[in-house]
Amino acid sequence: MDPVLLRKAGGVAEVTLNRPEARNALNLPMCEALLETFAALDDDEVRLVLVRAAGPVFCAGADLKERKGKDAAWVRRRRLTSFAAYEAIERCSKPVVAVLDGPVVGSGGEIAMSCDFVLASPATTFRFPEPHWGTIGATQRLQRVIGKRRAKELLFTGRSLGAHEAWQLGLVTRLAAEGELDKLVRETVDAIADAPPRALSLTKQAVDLGEETTLSNGIRIEMSAIERNLAAGDWRRGVDEFANKVGK
């Protein structure tokens, strides 16, 4: 089976982790498939991307079985490929939303944190056991999402987080009620699809670039995005559509 599936319909691209027999553990072919898949999403047909998983587990972390018999050079190359896959998700010009409905472990958390935000069911759990597996991971994105001290506690203890605590810490953006994850996904998709694609893309870029600099430089980044949006000319349609909705 393909380790990652891609389905496009109605402007929505669904990217599905597809190793349910291995609890969607992240191996080298899956890393490479994520890279290829996200490279194929930069087209005008796609308005937003959903990242989901086949089976009851979103991702059980790195597939440590594939490292058996490999040397340190192979492991290093494998880790660099996983970093490239996470970055491909993060750098996608479209809004990318993770949809979680089950355990999220280690590398699965990296995938989820690489998305723009996370929708989750009450069945979702998080765990970052890398140090307990004798490896290192999740040291950078995790602290940026939940803070340094909380990240250290989760990494040092390897304990499991329930969906509600994950929502409180910011790992989960919206937590669905029991049995209502699909409804939340549909509402989110409709809300995002309602916005002009160029404005969304430039907004995402401005937020991401602004995170890495000072407020004054961030304002310059936003002004640059505004200028690009004005130069494209299609901003008038968005203003007119908004005015028409308000007038109804």
TrEMBL record:
<protein>
    <submittedName>
        <fullName>Enoyl-CoA hydratase</fullName>
    </submittedName>
</protein>
<dbReference type="GO" id="GO:0006635">
    <property type="term" value="P:fatty acid beta-oxidation"/>
</dbReference>
<dbReference type="GO" id="GO:0003824">
    <property type="term" value="F:catalytic activity"/>
</dbReference>
<dbReference type="InterPro" id="IPR001753">
    <property type="entry name" value="Enoyl-CoA_hydra/iso"/>
</dbReference>
<dbReference type="InterPro" id="IPR029045">
    <property type="entry name" value="ClpP/crotonase-like_dom_sf"/>
</dbReference>
<dbReference type="Pfam" id="PF00378">
    <property type="entry name" value="ECH_1"/>
</dbReference>
